Amino acid sequence: MNAESGQTKAKSGRRTLLLFIITSLAFGTAFVGIKAGLDDIPPILFAGFRYDIGAVVLLTYVYWRGGYWQPRTRGDLIAVVVAGIFLSGLSATLLFLGQQYLTTGTAAVIFSLVPVLAPLFALVLLPEERFGLVELVGILLGLVGVVIIVGLNSLSNFGNSTVRGVALVGGAAVAIAFGSVLLSRTDRSISGLGMTAWALLLAAGLVHSFSLLMGESPEDITPTIGALIAVLWVGLPATALAFPSYYGLIDRAGPVRANLISYTVPLVATSVGAIALGEVISVRTIFGFVVIVIGFALIERQNIWCEILRLRGLPAPPEQDDEHICECAPRG
């Protein structure tokens, strides 16, 4: 029995690791796909295409899978609206606009600020959330990491394209951080994947509306094989595959460990961007990323310590649980 139990545990561990790798690769390469397609497709329209494909595939999947996939309650509808506006529509619009001015690695690193920014909104929106000096230092380190990436000289020139890109991608991270905390306040019963599928449908409509308001048109698209591949990549592996894999990872590993993809995604994006697009990885970006990771570690030190104890087979403190983590959010 012990041997069978050990084999089952090892098999489960391999599946969890596989989901972690798939999720990291899917979300990480999304940044590369976005960057590759921006030369041929207007940015906001491109984001709309991503959600068109993702919504159709995910809605088909959740319908086929069955279960609680349709919004039935007021809480479900509110969750879909919050996720559709903040976690998908607004964040994608800002991300695609911002990536015009940044390398994939820099954009992914700025985007990894989400778990550093979320506690700021949690402090305001969640009365039970409190943090002290260490958490404040962690948040400040996250912001310092951004300053390191941008550079002090660039900060004085707001017309600088890098500053513009960081502001837009940073705005996308803020939208997701705010939306994830707001989402944690909703009383939803719908599955996370079902909520995401409907949210992508709502986001697709919103993003296409933004695109029209900005004067974008399908006539502005340069029809190339590269553009087609970019659209299919961000719509299928980077969305339709990424989200089921991500929620599967949450089910198996819990949100604490699942949230670690926030820091593997930039590594994937930076590496693949360098290989596929010939982008240069700057020392400043690497250093800034390390500072952001340290900030995250300070904010989530108790949860990280609990995970270390669990991995060593030791009991975690009873007051610690996965509910400390804000509602899980898309990573790319």
Automatic annotation (TrEMBL):
GO cellular component terms, alphabetically, are: membrane
Q: What is its main location?
A: membrane
Protein topology in the membrane:
Multi-pass membrane protein
InterPro entries listed in its UniProt record: AA-Vitamin_Transporters, EamA_dom, EmrE-like
The membrane spanning regions, by residue number, are: 17-38, 44-64, 76-98, 104-126, 133-153, 165-183, 195-213, 225-248, 260-277, 283-300
The yes or no answer to whether the keyword NADP is present is no
Which keywords appear in this protein's UniProt record, sorted alphabetically?
Membrane, Transmembrane, Transmembrane helix
Pfam families attached to this UniProt entry: EamA
User: What residues does the EamA domain cover?
Assistant: 16-150, 164-299
Per the record's keyword annotation, is Cell division included, yes or no?
no
What subcellular compartments does it reside in? Membrane
Protein's name in the database: Putative DMT superfamily transporter inner membrane protein
